[in-house]
Amino acid sequence: MEEIISTLLVILFTYAAVSKLIQHDQFTLQLSRSPFITQYSKVISWLLPICEITISIMICIKKTKLIGLYASLFLMTLFTVYIYSMLRYSYYIPCSCGGVLSKMSWTVHFWFNVCFCIFSIVGIVIAELTNHYQSNEVCSI
Question: Is 140 part of any domain?
Answer without folding.
Answer: no
